[in-house]
Design brief:
alpha/beta; 3 helices; 10 strands
């Protein structure tokens, strides 16, 4: 019996991707859960993710096992990025650049590791295990407006 495993593979396509396994497939499945279709993001050669769409995962703790992004999810850039009330303990995996607003309210965050380097609109970061000051956030992130309490 002859097995021709290459029949279903497209030229130039990673065999793992072609049969729906591997890191790229895991990333695609996770992004599908937050309603970012395959045509709406770019997967870079280092497996970081660029998208112009807003990533909204509010009250979706199932997307963050043990309060963290899965190891294979690492954003480079996004539109707005909202991960409020997801039980998140770590921001590692968040985009470096956010073209809209960034919100990580009502989580269990204790440090700013993984915090975006740049946010074009507003940062909302209150109601976490650690209460960060505007000055602390400005040390790691350039943003025109930073909200560290819910009084405004």
């Amino acid at each position: 019996m002859i097995v021709r495993e290459n029949i279903n593979f497209e030229r130039g396509l990673d065999p793992k991707e072609a049969i729906g396994i591997g890191k790229a497939k895991l990333i695609q499945d996770w992004l599908d859960e937050v309603h970012i279709g395959v045509r709406n993001y770019k997967l870079n050669s280092d497996f970081t993710i660029d998208t112009d769409l807003d990533v909204i995962a509010v009250e979706r703790p199932e997307l963050f096992p043990n309060g963290r992004f899965p190891d294979y999810i690492r954003f480079n850039s996004s539109g707005s990025f909202d991960i409020d009330d997801c039980g998140i303990v770590s921001l590692v995996g968040c985009p470096k650049k956010v073209k809209g607003y960034f919100s990580c309210q009502m989580n269990k965050i204790t440090d700013l590791k993984g915090f975006p380097k740049e946010v074009r609109e507003c940062v909302y970061c209150f109601g976490n295990k650690a209460e960060f000051t505007e000055a602390e956030i400005r040390k790691v992130c350039f943003a025109p407006n930073i909200q560290v309490d819910d009084s405004e």
